[in-house]
Design goal:
It is built from seven helices and eight strands. The chain is of the alpha/beta class. It has one domain: P-loop containing nucleotide triphosphate hydrolases (Rossmann fold), CATH 3.40.50.300. The strands form two sheets. Strands 2-3-1-4-5-6 form a six-stranded mixed β-sheet, with helices on both faces. Strands 7-8 form a two-stranded antiparallel ribbon. The radius of gyration is 18 Å and the shape is globular. The termini are far apart. Bound molecules: guanosine-5'-triphosphate and magnesium ion (MG).
Length: about 240
């Protein structure tokens, strides 16, 4: 089963960084060397045997974005199963970001109405710890408002390449795509009961090395502070 996944958002938001960390084993600090993506970079990722993500990493520079909405509109937005829209929380061009996001949702509504839509409020490491939840909720409300005007449903996550939030979000997004997840979940629940275990976790050897792919239904409580997967740059 091939699933077309669009990765969109303005230039510098962190799309290629997260793709490289999740699927190509980059360390967070390696992403500082990435150049801007030219047009669209395609890649394929296989999960659990027969689920293949066809990832479209869409460069976010203005000229490319305008192209996606105009001359390439059908090519980009047709037959999409998942849209992942990435926002840089530190962006100084919020109005422009929201405008592009609105155009993107409108194109999705027109071409791929039943696609799942995820919004990542990214680079949350740049927001002081004590303000993160509030800043995220505020942005989430703004994004939900745009989506509900177009009668679309979205799910938002707060993420950073510098902690586990990136893996948590991608894990949940991929989880939503697994075609037979209910039956897998039932088997895991049975195994859990037979073993009298508190939890059973299914790991995918690649491309999520060491990462949980099928979390239990009830998410575990978030640790008060996620352990860094890689040390952030000292400023
Ligand atoms: N502080 C911080 N920086 C990040 C994070 N994610 C990515 N970056 C940095 O953001 C910069 C731009 O990242 P890219 O992944 O190239 O951005 P992009 O969205 O692919 O940009 P285009 O290809 O031009 O559309 C890099 O220097 C990354 O190291 C994050 O979570 N926190
Ligand atoms: Mg890029």
């Amino acid at each position: 089963m091939l699933q077309k996944v669009l990765l969109m958002g303005k230039s510098g938001a962190g799309k290629t960084s997260m793709r490289s960390i999740i699927f190509a084993n980059y360390l967070a600090r390696d992403t500082m060397r990435l150049g801007a993506t030219i047009d669209v970079e395609h890649s394929h990722v296989r999960f659990l045997g027969n689920l293949v993500l066809n990832l479209w990493d869409c460069g976010g520079q203005e000229a490319f974005m305008e192209n996606y909405f105009e001359s390439q509109r059908d090519h980009i937005f047709r037959n999409v199963q998942v849209l992942i829209y990435v926002f840089d929380i530190e962006s100084r061009e919020l109005t422009k970001d929201i405008e592009y996001y609105g155009s993107c949702l409108a194109a999705m509504r027109q071409n791929s109405k039943s696609a799942k839509i995820f919004c990542l409020v990214h680079k949350m490491d740049l927001v002081p710890d004590e303000q993160r939840e509030q800043v995220f909720r505020q942005r989430e409300r703004e994004l939900q408002a745009v989506a509900s005007r177009l009668e679309l449903e979205i799910s938002c996550f707060k993420t950073s390449i510098w902690d586990e939030t990136l893996y948590r979000a991608w894990s949940q997004m991929v989880h939503a795509l697994i075609p037979n997840r209910d039956s897998l979940q039932t088997h895991l629940d049975k195994l859990c009961a037979v073993c009298q275990a508190d939890e059973v976790v299914l790991f995918e050897r690649a491309p999520f090395p060491r990462r949980v792919l099928l979390p239990r239904r009830e998410p575990l409580p978030e640790p008060s502070r996620s352990p860094p997967v890689d040390a952030p740059p000292s400023s």
